[in-house]
Each structure stands twice: as structure tokens, then as C-alpha cells.
Design goal:
3-stranded antiparallel β-sheet; binds zinc ion; mainly alpha; about 300 residues; about 10% strand; 14 helices
């Protein structure tokens, strides 16, 4: 057996950990990837893959984890949940072992990956939405067709006209909204792989025709699935888009009151602004077209717009 002094010289020390933040986070994600569902199955939150990884443990085999630094091991086979007392006691013991089983000089005895890394960041600004959209757009040059399946088909209804897309070459491309719906739920595009930022699941992408469920493809313990976080994310985005849309509509209405005679050229030149005034892009096109064809008066258009809102 190694003496403490000799053994501790091989260990990662606290001072080293503090200066290698990016490396430390990469290593945390590497540990997380080892917790395959069939190896670390049915574990409660206290000893979930995330909690173990945060304290330096990687999964070795069925119910067995090992510290990547001091190589201590914990065997975590749980009794049946029907034996309630035994089950609870066993979880408490394993939970304490996540700290106590490390070697006395192992840095993971004192350190833990901050919870902020695990938690989802709220989306509260239009800048964040635009950044996610930009990242989704960059993905499109690699892929021919994307189909979103699952619950998002019905409960996350957004259109390209909801965004500031004047500069985008993908304005009429349905792939853009699909890619956005993927990026929003923590999936990052990495060449031919999709990787969840939170549970580190990796999905190989079929570049010709990618069919994907951005929610159910996460691991069962992914933070995005906890407490319906993914539904809160949809609400946050819809709130931002709705608020932005309402602001622009009121802006246009104010302009209407003061400069009725100038509003038509303004609407035509600020295509994106007008997108948000009416409910659908197709309707907008027909409306603008009829304005040119039929010489529809500005006041007629205003009335039509108000009805469509
Ligand atoms: Zn250790
Ligand atoms: Zn995930």
C-alpha cells in the first residue's frame, strides 16, 4: 500500500484545479459521458450521474464508480425500493461516500463542480434568442432536411416571421425553425454530431434527412427534463417573441396616428416590421401585392391589418 506522502504527490491539488477551469469542465463532461443508462440505472437524484460526476467520480461498470484522481471505488447496488428503510439508508450511505471515500488528499474530497454548470440558464433577452438562431443557421449548410417529431410539433408553434430575419438568407427555409428548436433545448451542433450540453448525450446526424425529437432524446436524468424545464424554456422564448411583436405593433400604430400618408412606403421598406403586424407571411404578401395592383388606399390597409391582429 502506498504511503500517504508518496500517494498524495500524484494527486491533483486544489491550486491546479483553480487555474484549469476549461479543462476541469471538459473533464467533468468526460466523466458524465461514462454514465450509460444501462450501467447507472434507476439511481435517485442524490446519487445521480450528475451528482457523482460533480464530485470526481466516473462510471466503470454496473453500479460501480471510481474517482478519476485517487481511484477510490464505490459499489452502489441499491436494495429494492419496496424495502423502504434499507433503500433510504443505502442512498444516504452512498451519498456520504461520494465525499468520504476519496483519499484524504484527493482534491475531490473538498471540491465540487458548481451547480451553475448543471443548471439551465434562463432565456430572457432577444439577444439570446438571436444568438441561438444564428447558431442554428450555421448548422443548415451541412444538412438537407430536418423533421422535428414528438411534443414540440404541437406545443412550440413559432414561425420565421417571429424573428428579426431581414439579414438571413434562410428567411423562407423551414429548416431554420427546426434547427432553432433543436438548439434551444441545449443541443450543440458539432460536425456530424449533436451533443447535449447538460447530459452529454451524443447523437449522430443523418445529413440527408435528420428526424429528431429534441426533448425525448435527452438522457432520463438530463436537467432539461427535470421539473419540465423544457416547457419553461418554451414559455420564455414565446414571451420574448410576443413582447417584441407587441412593441413593434404599438410602434407602427403610433406612426399611423402621426404620419398616415407616409406609412405605406415605410411598410414596404421595413419588411420585417410589417411581418409582425399581421398574422402570416402569406397574407402579408397578398396584401402588399394587392396594394400595388389595386391601388388600395392606406386607410383600407390599416383597417385590414387591425382586423388581422
Ligand atoms: Zn478521489
Ligand atoms: Zn441532455
Amino acid at each position: 500500500m502506498l504511503k500517504d506522502s508518496k500517494f498524495s504527490s500524484h494527486l491533483l491539488h486544489l491550486s491546479q484545479l483553480q487555474i484549469i477551469n476549461h479543462k476541469t469542465l471538459d473533464e467533468y463532461r468526460d466523466r458524465l459521458k461514462t454514465y450509460e443508462d444501462y450501467l447507472w440505472f434507476g439511481k435517485p437524484d442524490q446519487i445521480s450521474a450528475i451528482e457523482c460526476s460533480r464530485r470526481g467520480w466516473a462510471c466503470q461498470s454496473n453500479d460501480l464508480i471510481e474517482c478519476v484522481n485517487c481511484h477510490a471505488q464505490i459499489f452502489a447496488q441499491l436494495p429494492s425500493v419496496l424495502k423502504k428503510e434499507q433503500y433510504t439508508e443505502c442512498i444516504e450511505n452512498i451519498c456520504q461516500s461520494l465525499v468520504n471515500s476519496h483519499h484524504r488528499y484527493c482534491v475531490w474530497k473538498f471540491m465540487i463542480i458548481p451547480e451553475s454548470i448543471v443548471q439551465l440558464t434562463d432565456i430572457y433577452s432577444n439577444e439570446t434568442v438571436n444568438r441561438l438562431l444564428k447558431e442554428a443557421e450555421e448548422f443548415l449548410s451541412h444538412i438537407n432536411q430536418i423533421d422535428i417529431v414528438g411534443q414540440l410539433q404541437t406545443i412550440f408553434q413559432i414561425e420565421s416571421t417571429d424573428f428579426d430575419l431581414l439579414s438571413s438568407s434562410y428567411l423562407n427555409d423551414p429548416r431554420l425553425i427546426s434547427a432553432f428548436k433543436i438548439r434551444v433545448f441545449c443541443w450543440k451542433f458539432n460536425n456530424s454530431l449533436l451533443i447535449c450540453d447538460k447530459c452529454c448525450r451524443e447523437i449522430r446526424i443523418n445529413m440527408n434527412h435528420f428526424v429528431f425529437d429534441p426533448i425525448l432524446s435527452h438522457r432520463a436524468w438530463c436537467p432539461i427534463l427535470k421539473n419540465n424545464q423544457w416547457k419553461k424554456r418554451i414559455e420564455q422564448i414565446e414571451n420574448i417573441l410576443y413582447k417584441k411583436s407587441r412593441n413593434k405593433i404599438s410602434e407602427i400604430k403610433t406612426n399611423n396616428d402621426h404620419t398616415t400618408e407616409n406609412i405605406l412606403p415605410d411598410i414596404i421598406s421595413t419588411q420585417n416590421l410589417f411581418h409582425e403586424l399581421i398574422s402570416s407571411k402569406e397574407y402579408y404578401r397578398s396584401c402588399v401585392q394587392s396594394t400595388f395592383d389595386d391601388n388600395t388606399s392606406t386607410s383600407d390597409m390599416d383597417r385590414t391589418n387591425n382586423e388581422s391582429i
